[in-house]
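Posted in: Structural Biology > Protein-Ligand Complexes

Title: Requesting predicted complex, flavin-adenine dinucleotide in pocket

I'd be grateful if someone could produce the 3D structure tokens for the following input. Sequence and ligand are given below.
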Amino acid sequence: MTALADLPADVDLLVIGGGTAGLVAAKTAAGFGATALLVEAHRMGGDCLWTGCVPSKSLIAAAEAAHSAVDPRALGVATGAVDVDFAAVLAHVHGAIHEIEPVDSVEATEAAGALVVMGRARFTGPRAAEIDGRAIAFRQAVIATGSSPDVPDLPGIEGVEVLTSDSVWELTSRPERLVVLGGGAIGCELGQAFARLGAQVTLVQRNARLLPKEDPDASAIVAEALVADGVDVRVATTVERVEGADDRLSGILHLSTGDRVPFDRLLVALGRRPRTAGLGLDAAGVRTDERGHVTVDESLRTSNRRILAAGDVSGLPQFTHTAGVNGSIAATNAILGLRRRIDRDAVPRVTFTHPEVGAVGLLPSEAEENGCTVSEVRHRHTDRAIADGRTSGFTRLVIDGRGRVLGATIVGPRAGESLGEASLAVRQGLRTSDIASTTHAYPTYSDALWNAAVADVRGRLRSGALARAIAVLARITAWRMR
Ligand SMILES: Cc1cc2nc3c(=O)[nH]c(=O)nc-3n(C[C@H](O)[C@H](O)[C@H](O)COP(=O)(O)OP(=O)(O)OC[C@H]3O[C@@H](n4cnc5c(N)ncnc54)[C@H](O)[C@@H]3O)c2cc1C
Ligand SMILES: NC(=O)c1ccc[n+]([C@@H]2O[C@H](COP(=O)([O-])OP(=O)(O)OC[C@H]3O[C@@H](n4cnc5c(N)ncnc54)[C@H](O)[C@@H]3O)[C@@H](O)[C@H]2O)c1
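-- Reply #1 --
Done. Output follows.
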């Protein structure tokens, strides 16, 4: 690690933030031979490693193990009483973090050629910053400071020490009665996981459905799954007031429906706000939008052309893969002077509930307005899903008039894995005939994607000029073989 006193007076690229976006940006710039300095105020690796993807997916894995042991559809295998050792579950969560941590470490970043300093950076001018009071000049900079959980000012909420996705990993025991506010990705993933680990969970969602950015049928399947896991799902419901108890941890939630829900802990998952406080954006001439995100153009440059932004702070989709890809694009554009553009059309996303919801490109509900059709295979017709006893999902492809795949939504076990193929198809403009003519291993869930493509190709072969050509060819062949 570079000591503050040893910093060079100026650098080619100053990267603020050592989460996914900043790590990739710094390593990419160093790979081009530039002097890249990464500044991290807290922990290398950022939210994904410490409080986001890694702990949440590790908790979900433990929850899945608990669920499989008690699943009534356990396929003829009876198990005894399930004992969830919450401390051991959290040990697994922290173990996963520590196993992955070296990849994002100071050492790994320096080995890739970047300089790393631990400290808090802020801009002091359009080409100048300071790190814990030490001045540094930069030719260009990347803002990659991420986002934090948003805890809105709900009446009475100040009387309770709420949990957020930052603090939930510090629990030492499982809350018996957990209320989760928010039915987006975090609320659904963690709400289901805690329920499967034995907590009594109530999930309160303001919107009329869970995961409102996804296909409505996906929302319905996830809601059914949560209810089956014992979650008390309250949609189209808001919080009137939070009544805190003396311990400041527990209390009673007063809902818009008139119901009162007592809780031992309250987990707030109501979206995130960009981390820009104290960053000196005004001094740098960097503008933000109405939600406080750093405004970027299609090549990730801000209103100060020497400063770019990537990751959650930029207001683009808040995913680790987006942060990484855009961190790379920002550094490439900065150091090589290019205008590589971000991809807005083929950004995959997966909500890791059981079943998972994976989506890329156009939603099925957007098909008609875009002149597209939807080809669907329900997983009750997919042999692998039948064999697994997990038939509630579906695979839907959104297809344009020329047979190109413009979107996909997949609901099912490990939907995120099948989504890779759909993402490739959307990104590369592949047609359903490309997928249909590729042999898919049987029996897999990607068989559903293949069958959705085959169904579309069959439909095309049965209509229009192609159908007439096929009929003529068949008649000629029959005549030759007579
Ligand atoms: C519970 C949860 C689960 C998630 N699950 C997934 C998932 O399964 N898949 C997925 O793709 N995404 C997931 N996400 C989203 C993902 O974690 C974020 O999109 C991603 O971490 C954003 O990366 P980033 O680099 O933009 O920001 P961050 O990871 O937040 O990194 C920003 C870094 O900047 C540092 N910093 C801030 N200000 C300064 C400053 N002034 N000076 C120096 N350093 C500073 C911070 O300390 C931090 O380390 C999840 C998020 C949460 C909360
Ligand atoms: N699997 C993943 O990739 C993954 C997992 C977790 C988080 N994330 C990222 O983190 C971001 C933040 O997640 P999140 O779940 O906190 O936010 P979110 O914006 O996805 O969902 C918040 C939900 O809270 C609801 N809401 C808002 N105010 C409310 C209120 N007062 N009472 C009840 N409900 C209210 C909204 O209707 C919304 O559906 C996500 O958008 C995603 O980009 C990704």
